[in-house]
TrEMBL record:
Belongs to the cytochrome P450 family. The keyword Metal-binding applies. One of its GO terms (cellular component) is membrane. The keyword Metal-binding applies. The chain crosses the membrane at residues 6-24. It is a single-pass membrane protein. SUPFAM superfamilies: Cytochrome P450 (SSF48264). One of its GO terms (molecular function) is monooxygenase activity. Its main location: membrane. This is Cytochrome P450 85A.
Amino acid sequence: MAVVCMVVLGGLVLMMLCICSALLRWNEVKYRKKGLPPGTMGWPVFGETTEFLKQGPNFMKTQRARHGSFFKTHILGCPTVVSMDPDLNRYILMNESKGLVPGYPKSMLDILGKCNIAAVHGSTHKHMRGALLALISPTMIRDQLLPKIDDFMRTHLTSWDNKIINIQDKTKEMALLSSLKQIAGIESMPISQEFMTEFFKLVLGTLSLPIDLPGTNYRRALQARKNVVNMLRQLVEERRGSKESIPDMLGLLMKDDDNNYKLTDEEIIDQIITLLYSGYETVSTTSMMAIKYLHDHPAVLQELRKEHLRIREKKRPEDPIDLNDLKSMKFTRAVIFETSRLATIVNGVLRKTTHDMEINGFVIPKGWRIYVYTREINYDPFLYQDPLAFKPLRWMDKSLEYKKYFFLFGGGTRQCPGKELGIAEISTFIHYFVTQYRWEEVGGDKLMRFPRVEAPNGLHIRVSAY
């Protein structure tokens, strides 16, 4: 009987292997069209998403070694061409008008909203970008946003003395609640805690397979989006009902001006979610990793602290950081740039073809995604001397920020419009942290670098007064 069971089981295993092999072959044949770049497509529906998310940079390096720096794959529910060539990446980012429009995967579009600025193109993108740039102009940062950021950071960093804190959690809270304060002044209202819980679920689902099944990050994120949208819609309706004109981000988005493009409520809500998402990811992670790198490089920390103590010496304790102070934080800006480069907060950006088009000698079908993968540029020894070392001084040469391969904040017409606002937030956080506290790591917590930079078990530090 046991022998019969073993034979049957062996037969089933062999049959499953044959089916799997046939599915893989079928999927490869399906995409074996003349003119496509080399590469592999993996499983039907799932593609190579699992390998991509698990292996990250190693997956990309392996594929490049096999197929070159321009290859096809199937990730996050989309047939995709990956470009790892710096010159080609620059061309793709600079030529949206030729049919290379934003191409974020279904999971991200469903969760962030189909009206968010990263999803639209043409005249709609022009109008929305104009509306968002008005929210984060130098004048807005100086007069409206920086005072709110300063006030928030002072409060957020109180009572940390003589405590062990998870700096990952604290920077996540900081990034989201600071943005809520800037957008609509609600960081201390009861809605903020409920909103934060739902928003964190939303973020987790943006890099996932769009499979709507119970228990998946995608399903949880879709539900979280519904809850977030309901809270924001209530906020918009309350603001509109009050007839009060408040010059914050929400007020400017809702402004009824005949001379400008008027956003619908759906567009307003999607832009708020996009503002929160983009600021949250970059500000929280860069802040956490800056604390990590400063801890590991005491000489850099000493130089940074000198810069901030010089600013503090000219002020009374209650005096806030102003725009001139920010401009004087040249070494701090260098630390932020070097943190972004070495940690690689953003791995790349996605574009989509609006028609069949030839790129790099290959034909890319209409509707395919192109993943402009910029991660490896950050570690290119021809661009950055000693690229794996944390050396902020390299950025004191301002020309480095304007090199043609500088993609830390995107490129082309889609360069991150919130770059300077994000730098202002991180700089203000660093200012109050390093002038008030010293710290040491406890526990040697593990860091993951892909698909996002995070500490799975937190990053714990013991804080004491400086």
